[in-house]
Amino acid sequence: MPLEIAVFPARSDNFGYLVRDVASGRVASIDAPDAGAIIAELEKRGWVLTDLLITHHHADHTDGIGPLKAAYGAHAIGPKGDAGKIEGLDTLVDGGDAVMLGETRFAVIGVPGHTLGHIAFHAPADKVLFSADALFSLGVGRMFEGDYETMWAGLKRLKALDPQTLVYCGHEYTLANARFALSIDPDNPSLKARADEARRQIDRGEATIPARLADELAANPFLRADDLGMARRMGLEGAPASQVFGALRKAKDSF
Predict the structure, then answer these.
(1) Which residues form the Metallo-beta-lactamase domain (predicted)?
(2) 118 is in an annotated binding site
(3) Residue range 182-226, pLDDT digits in tens
């Protein structure tokens, strides 16, 4: 049976996500950015939180863990690589592991770079990916830990997923990401179409996610670091994709 997914705003620009396994009724929050927003959404839907699936150690993804565990007794699952920086985790997982939410299986994918232990949760049967700050609509997270080669390796794992996968990321950054992407890749028709769609969505008061992975593969410059044309635009023709990716990330940092 499918997942039900609730998307709602949290903090200033975070997305909050609740996922409900229809067969069992178990409900997980993907990350815990804001306990108040999460509790309000649970009460609105009449759902009871059973699990927390945490992607990385930053406070805007973990601040709600303590209050939510206190309120619901929820079981917190999170990244082994970031465990020393996250209070309240009950189970530690790493890339290659799996997490069950009732009958829904989430594959854990290692995506280090934004933090060393950053993980993503992928439900293959439902074709959904919760990428948090590793992959955004039209962008990627800032690299705070690790190196560009390692971060690119994690993104390649996401690139290999079913192109019809729907990507749910951690923040509403699409329009800002689009401005940078268009400065790098101004003649890309897929990027232009996605940027225009995002503007219309924002104007209608809608979220710009989920994004379809196939669209990201065509439009997101960071996922195209292995494209010869992108290497040429960055002045790095013949360079390894990880070097092109690093140049893109540095350019975005100073954009």
Answers:
(1) 13-171
(2) no
(3) 999 999 999 999 999 999 999 999 999 999 999 999 999 999 999
